[in-house]
Design goal:
Two copies of one chain form a homodimer.
Chain A (H helix, E strand, L loop, with lengths): L1 E6 L6 H6 L4 E4 L13 E7 L5 H4 L9 E7 L4 H9 L4 E4 L4 H12 L7 H11 L21 H11 L4 H8 L3 H15 L4 H8 L5
Helix pairs in contact in A: 6-8, 6-9, 7-8
Chain A binds a DNA duplex through helix 6 and helix 8.
Chain lengths: 206, 206
DNA sequence: CAAGCCATTGAACCAAAGTACAGTCTCGCG
DNA sequence: CGCGAGACTGTACTTTGGTTCAATGGCTTG
């Protein structure tokens, strides 16, 4: 099973290579060359923040043996809907850990759909209102709305279990700067540490 | 990983037992007794022709370690929507072959959604994949199975965002003891800190 | 009984996380 | 142009988390 990663620029995340050492990372201009052989595989397509899937993924016809997963910088209901409508087998976080990526691969390779635990609740909320019986409405926690772009980026990595050092390396900044961003995040969201941030972002205890 | 099948009458289909020889079949009156232990598993709930899911599956609160799949005598789009809205990880045909059932289990145990061949093909257009290719048996994460009772208790509190001091106060032990339990948990689960423990327990990244 | 697991704790220690109080640089806006 | 916001960094500090040496007592099981 091959794995191709498509990013805007052909750099990609380190975690991708970690998850699938034999995988290949391409820029979007190489998209048309994926899956020309007979080999089955998974195409991971990164959608950056603010982008619309259908705008960057138009007119691409994948053969049925090539499965397709959207990697979302900023997952949202609409993006998931678009992804599924475009034939994707799933939508997961760009910053997901290697273990998670392999898990996603396992699911989609077996014919399942993967939209993530945390995303599931919001999707369900959009497809049906049945859950709103006890007056509890599935409100979406837009935690990132008050955060700057960089703060959001750091917060996401923290929520996936990364240490300050790892985040620093990933973003090419010092550990000190990571701490600065995090302190700002904690204050803006009125939480006290990274674990609570993770719970908040992952929708465990909203 | 346990499998419970709930039918209107506690007879069930032969194919269910064939798919999971250790599974149990109950009538709907036994539904409330499912998942009272710590054991993780999959609950398969049969919806007969003409029935409405929400009418027969109301007010049932399953713990998060119990996954839930709807077995539909007559699958329809609306039933699938209802199923997902009720927290189901999938919806497949009551009369599905044992191989298919095991495939569904494989997908949902790994956090994926399985919404059946027909809808899947209309969305994804992909054919199903072969099952258990490498003979690798994917299992759900029963993290607490190797932990002692006290370790499990501490781990759960950590996963909810508690600090060591808070845990100590709550359990009437010293902070030192909390640390001891946590160190044991980290080693047994092969993880490095409390954030990863939280992700593991909360099913964000298995 | 001996062996082993479990719960508990202490002292000391190191590493990571987070805070306080700075500063530089860039960029957009009125 | 001045001003504010955001990205970035430094030094120093406190707190928290986690490990490494122990040790004690209860409990079950062969």
């Amino acid at each position: 099973m091959r794995h191709w990663f498509i990013d805007k620029e052909p750099n990609g995340m380190a975690s991708w290579q970690e998850a699938f050492p034999d995988s290949l990372v391409f820029g979007r201009d190489h998209l048309s060359r994926i899956g020309t052989g007979d080999e089955p595989g998974v195409l991971w397509f990164r959608i950056r923040a603010g982008e619309v899937l259908t705008a960057v993924f138009h007119g691409v016809a994948l053969p049925p043996r090539i499965l397709f997963v959207v990697l979302a910088d900023e997952p949202s209901d609409s993006l998931i809907e678009e992804a599924l409508a475009s034939g994707a087998s799933g939508c997961c976080n760009t910053y997901a850990a290697p273990d998670v990526l392999r898990q996603v691969a396992l699911v989609v390779e077996n014919g399942g759909l993967w939209i993530g635990r945390s995303l599931l609740s919001s999707l369900v909320g959009s497809t049906s209102r049945l859950l709103a019986k006890n007056g509890e409405k599935a409100r979406v926690d837009n935690w990132c709305e008050r955060l700057s772009e960089r703060e959001t980026q750091v917060a996401r990595l923290v929520a996936n279990g990364a240490s300050n050092r790892e985040i620093a390396e990933q973003l090419f900044i010092t550990e000190r700067t990571v701490k600065a961003h995090l302190s700002a995040v904690f204050e803006k969201l009125a939480i006290r540490d990274r674990l609570q941030l993770s719970l908040r972002i992952n929708g465990v205890s909203i």
